Amino acid sequence: MLDLDRLRALNAVAEYGSVSAAADVLGITTSAVSQQIAKLERETASRLLERSGRGVRLTDAAHLLVRHAERILALVAEAEADLEAQRGSVVGRLRVAAFPTAARGIMPRVLGDVAERHPQLTTRLFEADPKVALPQVQRGEFDLAIVHDWQGSPLPIPDGLEKAPLLDDPAEVVLPAGHPLAGSSSVELTTLAEESWICAPPGDICQVWLTQRLRQSGVEPRIEHDVAEYPTQLAMVAAGLGIAILPRLGRGILPPAVVTVPVRPVLVRHLYVVWRAEAARRPAVQAVVAAMRTAVANVEEPQMASPPSAESAIDSAK
């Protein structure tokens, strides 16, 4: 009889192209993956992997087995969901993916709530961008994922997945405190045509959206710095190196040297939670989604950092 863990290991190697990448996704060592493949080769009396340069390639027998493995693993996941739904117990393990600001701004509260309410459920968080997380949810490597898209630029949801809205996250332009528009009640994007922008790296959903939105407004963006982390973007704006557009969620405490100004028309980032359709019946999935909805209902507004007092500055210098 074919072992499911060994089929899962082969499937991961096929999907990610190497033993080390499969090990990262499965959360085990490369040695453990190699051992699973070796055992599967003995079970099937077939050579499944061959050396190819510094990596490996799948044999014809492996490709044949992977096609069956995908269906088998999907059926197992569906059976597990049915059994869990029948028991009605919030138990087992869940793997949850979230992009960085949701991981920081939502998931700590979710994980704490779930641990307190459902001690028999183990929930593990993985930080992953939406484009990476969605296909992994589709393949069953993650049970849930928090993803996002921007107003006017919807994120395609693969077949077999369902989604539910979590939060509309408004975005604002971040300016140095001494910027001429810093005191404005709101600002239009067209007034920022000559500005230098600090933005997420090329290909990131945030930069794609910003570029499209500015061009729709007749503005050709001049992106001077590609920066993935919002705290780094804030630090660079504070240093006068450019401006940025940041959503409120996960932004944290704002440096005293920056101000935020609402944009006209309002800019909104939409957050969703996604899962496989057959997993919707699982009490564990329902419990974590409920905890997410509770968490986003209590998202706090970001606070401005207060300038240090003279006394605290002196104390820090000692």
From TrEMBL:
Keywords of this entry: DNA-binding, Transcription, Transcription regulation
InterPro entries membership: LysR_HTH_N, LysR_subst-bd, WH-like_DNA-bd_sf, WH_DNA-bd_sf
UniProt KW DNA-binding keyword: yes
Listed Pfam families: HTH_1, LysR_substrate
SUPFAM superfamilies: Periplasmic binding protein-like II (SSF53850), Winged helix' DNA-binding domain (SSF46785)
Coiled-coil parts of chain: none
UniProt xrefs under PROSITE patterns: HTH_LYSR (PS50931)
Tree of life domain: Bacteria
Domain HTH lysR-type: 2-59
Gene3D superfamilies, A to Z: Periplasmic binding protein-like II (3.40.190.10), Winged helix-like DNA-binding domain superfamily/Winged helix DNA-binding domain (1.10.10.10)
Family designation: Belongs to the LysR transcriptional regulatory family.
Protein name, per record: LysR family transcriptional regulator
Organism: Marinactinospora rubrisoli
